[in-house]
Amino acid sequence: MSTNPNDDLHADLAAAVLAREAAQQPSWPDEQALVAAVAEIAAYPPLVFAGECDVMRTRMAAAARGDAFVLMGGDCAETFRSATANNIRDRIKTVLQMAAVLTYGASVPVVKVGRMAGQYAKPRSSNTETRAGQTLPAYRGDMVNDFAFEPAARTPDPQRLVRAYHHSAATLNLVRAFTMGGFADLRHVHDWNKGFVSSAANVRYERLARDIDKAMRFMAACGADFDAMRATEFFSAHEALVLDYERPLTRIDSRTGLAYDTSAHFVWVGERTRELDGAHVDFLARVRNPIGVKLSPKADLDDVARLVERLDPTREPGRLTIITRMGAERVRAALPALVERVQAEGATVTWVCDPMHGNTFESTGGYKTRKFDDIVEEVHGFFDVHRALGTVPGGLHVELTGNDVTECIGGAHKILDTDLEKRYETVCDPRLNHQQSLELAFLVAEMLSADVPA
Ligand code: PEP
Ligand code: CO
Q: What is the pTM for the complete model shown?
């Protein structure tokens, strides 16, 4: 008999994965190397703590009620190379700025969530990629293989799971330092804007920061206590895709005896791995974290009802978030029936809009891109549907970077199809750049503060 409860847990989880279909998993060429990597990760400390996941669940419940709004943002796919201090800082600053815009514009607390410190794996539509007659394994994220189109780089390497752990730990360390060490103090609201290229959105942000400053000085003069503003909560999230990474990071909480996936505070299953009987849904059902499911218009409503039953059997607000990614054209037609069905199941889920993944297309120059206007239009549709049904639009999930990239078309800088090649850096989906992110936040703040449907 083992004495460590995590050993039994890991044996159970391994057996559970084997008993089910696990979609989108890498074909590791070396089984021994995989076993060694998984054992190494299992011996490392947790990245997040059970108590933090519990706090986040209460925040998600507040968002489900309309007492808070969730902002999730970060890269489509993080890379090891881009996990630098500057990149991480700029992404955090972007999320903090967007949150300030939303909080100030709509007077609602914002639950800040980074799609970071673990977003290193990607589902792919094909197992292979062919270029100029050469066929290699598809890139599945830095946790699995390398983006470079070469046989050695594309071969899945289990040591990358270990590297993903270390990069996530380093990223989280910086996130915690930035958000707990005074940088996120609302009295630094101006500083978050420093270092970014100037744009209409930045100028608008500066005005807002001046207003916030004035309000803070007023409160200080009244003798307010600013301790609560010195630090901010910031949660981590990623798609729980590669189960050989998520399993060894799942741990028994010594206080409650319950299992938590300690790779992040919040984990979700994607549109391609949410089969009811699949290994991913089974895995999420076994952990106590706040969790999410992505749904497209393809989702069958009976399946959704069964997913709700499987993942949120006690109908606990904050436990389950449904992230809808319908596409600007379909959201108004497809979302109402889904929302009504979930309501009929008696679940209070947190409804979050992902206006990115239903709006991707290939540009004339061959770049995977999205139009800023489509993104805005989907968020509008999301708000209108929820307002019409009397349900709560609880949050926004976006792919963004703090960098000045040219990956999405439009926005105040009017990025054109022909501009995409200038600074197209993503290894997966196109991200909003810093100014497009801020611009979106201003628009969403208006939607959030509007009492009546547009
Ligand atoms: C993603 O979030 O990058 C993703 C793959 O989304 P979806 O599962 O919604 O397609
Ligand atoms: Co993506």
A: 0.96
Rounded to whole angstroms, the Cα distance separating 363 from 436 reads: 18
328: tokens are: 């600007």
Residue pair 252/133 in contact by the 8 Å Cβ criterion: no
The domains located in the chain, with CATH, are: 5-449 (3.20.20.70)
Distance of CA 26 from the midpoint of ligand 1 (Å): 17
- Asked whether 93 and 402 are in contact (CB, 8 A), the reply is yes
What is the whole-number distance in angstroms between the Cα of residue 230 and the centre of ligand 1? Answer: 34
Give tens-digit pLDDT for 7-62.
999 999 999 999 999 999 999 999 999 999 999 999 999 999 999 999 999 999 99
Q: For ligand 1, what atom is nearest to the CA of residue 270? A: 8
Q: How far is the CA of 231 from the centre of ligand 1 (A)?
A: 31
Burial state string for 202-215 with b = 16 or more CB within 10 A and e = fewer than 16: bebbeebbeebeee
266, 289 Cβ separation under 8 angstroms: yes
150: left (phi over 0), alpha (psi -120 to 50) or beta: beta
What are the tens digits of pLDDT across the range 92-129?
999 999 999 999 888 999 999 999 999 999 999 999 99
Strand partners, 111: 70
Is residue 452 pLDDT above 50, yes or no? no
Q: How far is CA 125 from CA 23, 129, 140, 171, 293, in A?
A: 11, 10, 10, 29, 19
The answer to whether 239 touches 269, Cβ cutoff 8 Å, is yes
Please, what sign has the CA dihedral across residues 398, 404, 405, 411? positive
Residue 361 has a CB neighbour count (10 Å cut-off) of 12
Q: Please report, rounded to a whole number, the percentage of residues in the chain having pLDDT higher than 70.
A: 99
Specify the 3-state DSSP secondary structure of 12: helix
* Residue list, ligand 1 pocket, CB within 6 Å: 76, 123, 239, 270-272, 294, 325, 357, 429
Q: How many CB atoms lie within 10 A of CB 340?
A: 13
CA distances from 426 to 26, 91, 317 (A): 21, 14, 35
* Atom of ligand 1 lying closest to residue 239 CA: 2
The label of the residue with tokens 């991200």 reads: 431
Each residue's pLDDT tens digit, 224-263? 877 777 889 999 999 999 999 999 999 999 999 999 999 9
Q: pLDDT at position 451, please?
A: 56
The answer, yes or no, to whether residue 453 has pLDDT greater than 50, is no
CA-proximal residue: ligand 1, atom 10 (nearest): 271
CB 350 within 8 A of CB 321: yes
